Amino acid sequence: MKEYLRKYFILRKHNASVMWKKARINKMCYLFLAPYAILFFAFYILPVCSSIVLSFTDYNILEAPSFVGVKNYLNLILQDDVFLIGVKNTFLIAVITGPLGYIMAFLFAWLINELPRWLRTIAVIVFYAPSIAGNVYQIFTIFFRGDAYGYVNAFLTEWGFIDGPKLWLTDPAYMLPICMIVILWMSLGTGFLSFVAGLQGVDKSLFEAGYVDGIKNRWQELWYITLPSMKPMLLFGAVMAITNSFSVCNQTMALCGYPSTDYAARTVVTHLFDYGFSRFEMGYASAIATMLFLVMILCKKFVTNILQRVGT
Amino acid sequence: MGKYNTQKAYRKPLIKRRKPNRSVGGDIGIYFVLFLFAIAMVFPLVFAVSSALKPLDELFRFPPTIFARNPSFDNFSDLFVTMSKSWVTFSRYVFNTIFSTVVGTVGHIMLASLAAFVLAKYDFPGGKTFFTIVVTALMFSGYVTGIPNYIILSKLHMIDSYWAIIVPAFAAPMGLFLMKQFMEGIPMSLIEAAKLDGAGIGRIFLTIILPLVKPAWLTLMIFDIQALWNADAKMYIYSEEKKMLTYALQQISSGNLIARTGQTAAVMVVTMVIPILAFVLSESQVLETMASSGLKD
């Protein structure tokens, strides 16, 4: 045992000296990396770490933070009914729009892949445009306006589906579905571009081999050839989809109001925004942020596991 | 395949040979459905544009027309009239947005390509770990880091200045990620050859790498423009004269959406036209970059 430990330490020492030498040789690399790394740590890593620390404190920016243990978390789960509504809504939105948007992005990318080049370019622009069009989703407030002048109300009344105008954006029964439609409309973002580009790069000879091996239709080709060679892009798209579907709040706030009727359109991030920037209870808001972040990391692990089984 | 190899090289087949495992019915059905979806996707955008062009009497007509019958730019000129009532001039808002977009984009591209270069092409202790952290950071949305960021920015005295938008944008993880993935595709032999010729790391970066990653630059530029043009930064900036254009425009439309439907639509057109136009102009370069965006697990 002692011999083993001694050898182990010698090995570690050796490794460390090799590392040190490597670092010395490549010291210019650190110089190149430094400007980015410093800012990255200051604005991306430090915030997450301090968010975790702050989540155990009571902090309102003016006074120094005071340690309160897990009180924030307990309050969130046991006492804050509005937070639980937010969790429920975020969960519903994530579970429905996340996978659906992801599948939609891949399906559209795959279907336009065989179009002629000029047509494909137009299709990419058409499908991608809603996600970069800024706040154009507010046009849906005009479509779904609550009075008889809203287009949806007007048409549905005219065609006899409903008797009178429905309060699409103020009635809790309709808020979430409408938000989901809008979110789906905007969900063909960066992941979609990655899919389109990745599909172009799939090795054509694999398809030829597929014909010879007796792949009968496009669906078999998709499952056995296209999807397995797209795994890296699929993972990237999944990360984007998770990020987007868990951090929904702009759309619900713009469409249903902030706060919305009975908090029916409240999401976790809306709640975070409420406590962080309206009430300045930073410790509490940090606890929300930390929980959200943990869920996102777990979700990514889960999706990675699923994607490993694709094409087998 | 063999049949076409015998063809003369300069005569491309008029119709590409169909893949053998595709059914015609399936093709027609799929493209029909795709077409319907494309219409649905583009309809709200088209409607926003045409609403912006409709004069008042057409805006509230029922049934609504998809295209304006007598298109006019009244809504846009109304928008400028409303904007000019504010004590901050319109050009100031435009300057704010353009300034922070340009500075943020240029800085981000410079810092990200410096860092991406060494991460992609050199093996040094800590490099791989750093990149893994950056990939995880792709999942931080602005709101999760928003609160501590506010505290950090206020400690740095950057609240209520352009830097509150610009400096965090310098370090956006997406840019580094795409840039690094793209640089991985550059053959190592080029760099080895330059090393043999006696070029240092700086020289290799400037003369070999930078000219080769132009598509990635453009892509980063597009993503930055999208992000910064739409950044309203309402958490960090409160002085009227430092507000971004989109924020100022939103203030107009948020006041009374119905009474100012035309102006609101004009606001939407102004905010969406720049990112979409930027994308249209550089679509092929962006796709070239995104081809290397895959995440290895």
Topology:
The complex is a heterodimer of chains A (312) and B (297).
Chain A: H1 2-25, H2 27-54, E1 57-58, E2 66-67, H3 71-79, H4 81-112, H5 117-132, H6 139-143, H7 151-158, H8 172-185, H9 190-200, H10 204-212, H11 218-229, H12 231-246, H13 250-256, H14 268-278, H15 282-308
Antiparallel strand pairs in A: 1-2
Helix pairs in contact in A: 2-15, 4-8, 4-9, 4-12, 4-14, 8-13, 9-12, 12-15, 14-15
Chain B: H1 2-5, H2 24-53, H3 56-59, H4 74-85, H5 90-121, H6 127-137, H7 146-155, H8 163-170, H9 173-184, H10 188-196, H11 201-212, H12 214-230, H13 245-255, H14 261-281, H15 283-290
Architecture overview:
The complex is a heterodimer of chains A (312) and B (297). Chain A has 312 residues and is an all-alpha fold. In chain A, 73% of the residues lie in helices and 1% in strands. Chain A has 15 helices and two strands. Chain A has helices at 2-25, 27-54, 71-79, 81-112, 117-132, 139-143, 151-158, 172-185, 190-200, 204-212, 218-229, 231-246, 250-256, 268-278, 282-308; strands spanning 57-58, 66-67. The longest helix of chain A has 32 residues, at 81-112. Chain A is flat. The model of chain A has no long low-confidence stretch (mean pLDDT 86). With 297 residues, chain B is mostly helical. Chain B has two domains: 2-72, no CATH class; 83-290, MetI-like fold. Chain B contains 15 helices and no strands. Chain B has helices at residues 2-5, 24-53, 56-59, 74-85, 90-121, 127-137, 146-155, 163-170, 173-184, 188-196, 201-212, 214-230, 245-255, 261-281, 283-290. In chain B, helix 4 packs across helix 14, helix 5 packs across helix 9 and helix 12 (214-230) crosses helix 15. The two termini of chain B are 36 Å apart. Chains A and B meet through helix 1, helix 2, helix 4, helix 5 and helix 6 of A and helix 2, helix 5, helix 6, helix 7 and helix 8 of B.
Relevant terms:
heterodimer, A: 312 residues, 15 helices, B: mainly alpha, MetI-like fold, 68% helix
